[in-house]
Amino acid sequence: MRGLVVGFGEKLVLDGLDLDVRRGEILGFVGGSGTGKSVLTRTILGLIPKRAGKIEVFGSDLDKVSRIEFDALERRIGVMFQGGALFSALTVKQNVQVPMREHLNLSRRLADDLAMLKIELVGLSPDAADKFPSELSGGMIKRAALARSLALDPELLFLDEPTSGLDPIGAAEFDDLITTLQKTLGLTVFMVTHDLDSLYSVCDRIAALADKRVIETGPIETMLASEHPWLRAYFHGKRARQLSASTMRKTAQGDRP
Ligand SMILES: Nc1ncnc2c1ncn2[C@@H]1O[C@H](COP(=O)(O)OP(=O)(O)OP(=O)(O)O)[C@@H](O)[C@H]1O
């Protein structure tokens, strides 16, 4: 993204935003509430129009692709929206099959087999397949939403606050799942998160949004060393102190945080 400008009415949410997401990395995207993290994700996905700037996905300028080319790019991208956004009237299996129905012309049997593979991939038991979202725990909903985002074997995965609402153990398990999937499937992951644990344990790099643009990018050490007031408050505030101290110890001992 280069020089991205997005706004609603008189109000600009993003103004001159530059950001690179590198192939094969997990990029954590942080910023205060209401700063425009979801707006950026939705703009990249073509759901919100931009006023200026350029977005390239897989080397294609989104302003220059035809509708058919855009659809082909879209098939290479998986999205897990905040809260899962599962269809409540559909079972887990049917939810996972929604993108398949939209983009592929599969026999029912093949669609069933593929959906079951995705369901197992995210650590859900096969009997979750015929359950409705209302019958699932928060952690299971997240996994079902992740299974749906993987339905078309994407190369690039957008995760919007994947661990929000999970208890610390559930969140750590979900972090491990994302890391494992990223490695085994060779995914590039763009992850909006407020979760400091995820930033420390999962992300290769972090990008921080403030003042309508990306103010800092780099590994966790860059964030910890930044003098920007929001980053100082975020990474050195009360909640961050314990984590930060333990990471410093691990880094000093040569372990990856
Ligand atoms: N469709 C819309 N119409 C008008 N304003 C919008 C629209 N969508 C988002 N906004 C505004 O854009 C700003 C950024 O919203 P966004 O949801 O991207 O924040 P966020 O960084 O994802 O916040 P959070 O961390 O709380 O989820 C907010 O002020 C929001 O009110």
UniProtKB/TrEMBL annotation:
Belongs to the ABC transporter superfamily. The keyword Transport applies. This is ABC transporter related. Gene3D superfamilies: P-loop containing nucleotide triphosphate hydrolases (3.40.50.300). GO terms for molecular function: ATP binding; ATP hydrolysis activity. SUPFAM superfamilies: P-loop containing nucleoside triphosphate hydrolases. It comes from Methylocella silvestris (strain DSM 15510 / CIP 108128 / LMG 27833 / NCIMB 13906 / BL2). Residues 1-236 form the ABC transporter domain. Signal peptide: none annotated.
